[in-house]
Every structure is written in structure tokens, then in C-alpha cells.
Amino acid sequence: MDKITLRTLLWPRRDERPMMTAVLVLLVALNALTIAHYQGFFTPQADNYWNLFVTRFQVSGFDPISYYVISDWEARYNVYRHPLLAFVMWIPYLINRALMILTGINCALYIMCAIQIVAAWYAFLFLYRLIHDVLAVAKTDARLLCFFMYSFAMVMVTAMVPDHFVLSLCLLLFTLYVTGLYLQRHRAMGVWATIGLFVATAGISLNNGLKVFMAALWVNGRRFFRPQFILGAVLIPAIALWWGCRNEYHYLVAPGENARHAANAKRKAEQRQREAERQRQ
């Protein structure tokens, strides 16, 4: 059996490259539609990016928080649902700030589309390998099934809007693919592998972490319940992530929320005062 390495997991094989080229063309075309529709609204620099993105973005069921975080970094996600997502966007934010200086426009739209293309491209690759390598479906049938999935409207929209869903799709399919490889090789999922998958998936969306534990249980069987595995791979990472969520909210989110609430209360009080003054007049 070939050794499981990041190169073998992430690099397309020779027979996969034509298929993945076609997928790349599809994803670029989908995200080009997003850029064509929103670049007139989202590329000019602004003083209040939050109001700009929230009022202009009009895809039902999705939100443009990632555009805002890349434009003016702040932990504006719900940290108890997306503990590490704001930190994932830190490097894209720095890239966007540099591009703002160089180009004079806000490039958050383009950067987020690039992230979506990469995540959706790898999601397709992992899905294909899961179907072909793990489930032993013939290549042609596996390709048809993958393209069939990517023909669903919800999947196409997920690949072209700035939400966390395409990132979750990529990481969960990666988890399933790696789980299948462990099962094929009759190998146990180690503590560090479980922690890595848990932090990556739960950091994007907390409920994804439970799926990693389910995958480890399926691979390891009764060995999952060994005290050292439960403690090192489940309890300590889960407690550490929850502790990080609480501190992230206390130090990064709460001050901004309190300031916004105070500003809203002040504005409403001023409006009531002006209304009362008009009534007196």
C-alpha cells in the first residue's frame, strides 16, 4: 500500500488532470458570474464595509461576512459556531490590504472567489477519490457521479458565494476520504491525525468536529474508547477549542458588540429626543 502523505492526498494524478481542468473551468465561470454582478458595488473602498455588504448582497440563505472580514478584519462570525474562521481569513485580509494600497480598490470579492474556487476544486477531487479509490466505482461512473453532484443548483451556489459552506464541504469530504484510506489499509486513526482533522473542521464550523469523532470511532472501533485516545484526541481538543471560543468572544467580539449596542442606544435616544422636540413644537 502507498504511504498516505499530503502530496499523494492533494496532488492530482495524471489520469485525474483532464477532469480537474474541466472542473476548474466550471468553477472559474461560476465565480466570474459573482464578480460580474457585484464588482460595481463591492470594489470601491468605503468607510462602512459592513453596511455596504449586508445591504447589497442578496443571495438568500447566505451572508457576506467573509467579504467584510477580508476588507476590515474583525471577529464578526458567531465564534461559538465558527471558532477559527476569522483567523483563517487573517492572511487573505493582509493580502487585501496590500492590494488596496497598490490598486486603490477593495479586492475582497476577488480574493474570496479564489478561495471558493480552490475549496470547491479540492472538494471535487476528494469526492472523486472517495467514490473511485475507496468505494471502487469505475472511473467513468465516478466522474459522472461527481459532475452530477456539481450540477445541483445548491452546490453551484455554494461554490460561488462567500460563506463557509464550501470550506466545510471540502474539509468534510477530505475527512471521509482519509477515513476510507485508513479503513482500506486496516490502520487506526492516530491521536494527532484526529486532532488535526478536528481542529480544521470544527474551526470552520463547530458541528463539523463531531463528524471527525464519528469517523475516528468508525475506523478505530473499540480502540476509540481507550482512555488515552478519549483524553488526548477527544476531550482535550474539544475543551481547548471551547475555551478558545470563550476567550475569543470575551476579548475580540464582546468589546465591539458593546460599542455597537451603545452607539445604537445613543442613536435611538437622540431620535426619541428629536421626535419629542418636534411634538412640543
Task: Summarize the structure in words.
- It is globular, with a radius of gyration of 22 Å.
- It has 13 helices and no strands.
- The chain starts with 5 loop residues before the first helix and ends with a helix.
- Helix 2 packs antiparallel against helix 7, helix 4 crosses helix 7 (108-134) and helix 11 (191-204) runs antiparallel to helix 12 (208-220).
- It has 281 residues and is an all-alpha fold.
- The protein is 75% helix and 0% strand.
- The relative contact order is 0.10.
- The protein has helices spanning 6-10, 17-42, 49-56, 65-71, 85-88, 90-103, 108-134, 139-150, 153-158, 165-184, 191-204, 208-220, 227-280.
- The longest helix is centred in the C-terminal third of the chain and has 54 residues, at 227-280.
- The mean pLDDT is 90.
Which structural class do the helices and strands define? mainly alpha
Q: Give a count of the beta strands, DSSP E runs of length 2 or more.
A: 0
Order of secondary-structure elements: HHHHHHHHHHHHH
Question: Roughly how much helix do the residues carry, as a percent range?
Answer: over 70%
**Gap from first CA to last CA:** 86 Å
Q: How confident overall, as mean pLDDT?
A: 90
Radius of gyration: 22 Å
Tally of individual helices? 13
The stretches of 5 or more residues where confidence is low (pLDDT under 50) are: none
The biggest sheet, with number of strands, parallel, antiparallel or mixed sense and barrel status, is: none
Strand content: under 5%
